[in-house]
Design goal:
Blueprint: H1 3-9, H2 12-18, E1 24-26, E2 29-33, E3 40-44, E4 52-54, E5 61-63, H3 64-72, H4 76-86, E6 104-105, H5 108-112, H6 117-123, E7 125-128, E8 137-144, E9 147-155, E10 161-163, E11 185-188, H7 191-199, E12 203-206, H8 215-221, E13 226-231, H9 236-245, E14 249-254
Parallel strand pairs: 11-12, 11-13, 13-14
Antiparallel strand pairs: 1-2, 2-3, 3-4, 4-5, 6-7, 7-8, 8-9, 9-10
Helix pairs in contact: 3-4
Length: about 260
C-alpha cells in the first residue's frame, strides 16, 4: 500500500497498543500520552486525516507510521509493514437492526443528477426531514443481511461524509446485500455514481468514498462472479489493490464521475 492507504486501513487504538501507548477513544479522536513530552496528545481515529496526531503542549505532530518509527527506533518500511500486518481494523459488524427512522424526501439535487425518485425510494435515499444529525445531507440507508444498520450522509453544502460513530465503512459495501452474485456487479467509490448505476438497471456497490479497499471489502467482492471496477484518474491505488487481492474475474474501467458533489 501507499502510505495514505496504510493510514486509512490501520486501526488507531490497535496501533497505539502495539507500541505500548495507553489509548482512550472519545468520538472521532483517541487521546494518548505524547511520546515527546508526556502530555495528552490526540490522533484521529477515522474519516479525513485518519491516524494523524497532534500534541497541543509540545506542538509535535505527525502520523502513525512516523510515530511507530520514533518509538520502535526502526526505519520507514519496517514501521509501515508492522502496522499493515499487525494493526489492521478487526472490529465486528453491527449485529442489531437500527431502530432510528428518518423520513427521507426526494430532493431537487437528486433530480438535478437525473436520479429517478423511484430508485431513491426503493433504496432508501433522500434528504432527511426535520432536525437530525444528517440534516442538510443526502442520506443513504445502509443495510446488511437484509436489515437496516445505519444511515450515511453526504452533506449538500460541501460534500463531507457524515455518519454515526458505531458505523465503520471499512466493514461494508453499500448495497452488497442486494446483489445477485451470478450477474455482473459495478464498483465505484462515489455513492451517487453507485445510485446512478442502479437507476440504469445495473447492479452496483460502493465503499463509501474511501480512497482504498479494506480486506473486508475484498471478502465481499470475491463472492461475486464478475465485477467491473469504475475508477477515476486519481484512484490508481485501488487498481493495484484489486490486482493483488481479487480472486474473481474483474475489469477496470476508467470514467469521469457520473454525479459529482450535490449542488
Amino acid at each position: 500500500m501507499k502510505y495514505l492507504a496504510t493510514l486509512q486501513s490501520v486501526d488507531t487504538v490497535k496501533a497505539l497498543g502495539l507500541i505500548n501507548l495507553e489509548a482512550a477513544q472519545q468520538g472521532a479522536y483517541v487521546k494518548y500520552p505524547c511520546h515527546k513530552c508526556g502530555k495528552q496528545a490526540v490522533i484521529k481515529a477515522y474519516g479525513e486525516k485518519k491516524n494523524l496526531w497532534y500534541c497541543p503542549d509540545c506542538k509535535g505532530s505527525g502520523h502513525i507510521i512516523s510515530l511507530v518509527m520514533d518509538i520502535n527506533q526502526c526505519d520507514w518500511n519496517t514501521a509501515k509493514k508492522t502496522l499493515e500486518e499487525k494493526a489492521c481494523f478487526t472490529a465486528g459488524k453491527i449485529t442489531k437492526e437500527l431502530t432510528l427512522n428518518y423520513e427521507l424526501e426526494y430532493d431537487k439535487r437528486l433530480e438535478h443528477q437525473s436520479i429517478n425518485a423511484d430508485i431513491c425510494q426503493k433504496l432508501g435515499v433522500g434528504k432527511p426531514k426535520g432536525k437530525t444529525m444528517l440534516s442538510g445531507t443526502i442520506a443513504f440507508t445502509v443495510t446488511d443481511e437484509g436489515k437496516k444498520i445505519a444511515y450515511y450522509g453526504i452533506r449538500i453544502r460541501d460534500g463531507k461524509h457524515i455518519f454515526h460513530n458505531s458505523f465503520n465503512p471499512e466493514l461494508y459495501l453499500l448495497y452488497a446485500d442486494r446483489i445477485d452474485p451470478e450477474k455482473e456487479v459495478y464498483f465505484t467509490t462515489d455513492m451517487l455514481d453507485c445510485l446512478k448505476h442502479w437507476d440504469a438497471g445495473k447492479q452496483a456497490v460502493c465503499n463509501f468514498g474511501l480512497p482504498y479497499l479494506s480486506q473486508e471489502h475484498f471478502k465481499l467482492m470475491n463472492k461475486f462472479l464478475i465485477i467491473s471496477i469504475c475508477l477515476k484518474d486519481h484512484e490508481e491505488e485501488i487498481a493495484f489493490q484489486a490486482l493483488k487481492n481479487l480472486q474473481i474475474y474483474f475489469r477496470i474501467l476508467r470514467e469521469e464521475s457520473l454525479s459529482g458533489v450535490p449542488q
